[in-house]
Amino acid sequence: MAFLFKSGDELFDEAVNHINLKEYVKARADFSKCIEKGASKSSLASIYISIIAMVQNPENPNNYKTLANNLRSVNPGMVEFGLTQVDGMRLADECDLVAQRIILMSTNGNAAVREKKGKDLIQLGLQYQIKIGKDTLKTNELIYGDTATSGIKESLSIQALGYETLASSAVLTDPKQAAEYLQNAYNYRRQAGDDGSHDKQLIESYSKSAKCWICGRTTTGEGIHFLAMSSEITPFMRNGQDDLLKSAPANFEAVYVCRPCYSAISRRSDAISRKYYDDAIRDLRATEARLQMEIAEVRAYASSMAIRMR
Ligand SMILES: [Zn+2]
């Protein structure tokens, strides 16, 4: 009955067939058996298992790290996985970059954390340019079947993201600096083939100055340091003021208010609403208690009447 047991090499070939059919669970099982048998292609099988783990769970940075380590320790030359062919060492470099990207993207925090994240993303973008360049991203091809994204394009997108992150860290203290970062981000987005309209919109907002309608202070950065509050500017008020347009949008349906005035008004109105709410609830409770007492009285009267009728 020995012929029923497949050799390690046969298992390996069968697993490769499963990969071609995208049957990754079966492929992984066969590669594992191949390793258990100590077959000559065991080390290659371990690389395939790590590629499958990456394809099945592409958001886990550890899968890329494991694959990179396996590739470097085996140094397999060209690796074929389905229709994809890639040099093992080149794939290892790309895996390092993807793992770094995933880890960086998941960091978040205060302005200092975001500033570091932005700088690190820009450095990472440069590494994509240096290590992958015009070549396409093989991890994208293996995972998503995407053969169009080059290292250069990824580099531009990541650098754009880096500058956008720097802008978000700077805007609270220096909206003009944030707008400059966004101008860089916009340029990278355009080179990468994106329209960059979101960056452009933010550049316009962050560069815009206004004079607070209420306190008269001038500030820069719409949506951050000043906001438009719905209002009614009468035709009489629209005339005769030199810098009216700095205090209101062109349609006169709002006034520009600096963040301190805005937050003072909204916090005070929140407190007033809260008081009205609490008063209303207290009145409701008092009414409820009075009604309960009246109901009890009516019941007592009804039962005393019932006794008398007997
Ligand atoms: Zn103000």
- The total domain count is 3
What structural class should be given to the helix and strand makeup? Answer: mainly alpha
Run of helices and strands:
HHHHEEHHHHHHEEEHHEH
Outline the low-pLDDT stretches.
none
Strand order in the largest sheet: 1-2
Which small molecules are bound?
zinc ion
Question: How would you characterize the largest beta sheet?
Answer: 2 strands, antiparallel
Alpha carbon gap, first and last residue:
99 Å
Oligomer: single chain
Q: How many helical elements?
A: 13
How many beta-strand runs? 6
- Helical fraction equals 55-70%
Strand content: 5-15%
- The coarse silhouette is flat
What do these coordinates show?
With 310 residues, the chain is mainly alpha-helical. It is 67% helix and 8% strand. It has 3 domains: 1-87; 107-207, no CATH class; 208-269, no CATH class. The protein has helices at 8-20, 24-36, 42-56, 61-74, 88-106, 111-131, 138-144, 151-170, 175-191, 197-207, 235-238, 244-247, 259-309, and strands at 78-81, 84-87, 209-211, 218-220, 226-230, 254-258. The strands form 3 sheets. Strands 1-2 form a two-stranded antiparallel sheet. It has a two-stranded antiparallel ribbon with strand order 3-4. The structure holds zinc ion. Zinc ion is lined by residues 212, 214-215, 217, 257-258, 260-261. Residues 212, 214-215, 217, 257-258, 260-261 line the site of zinc ion (ZN).
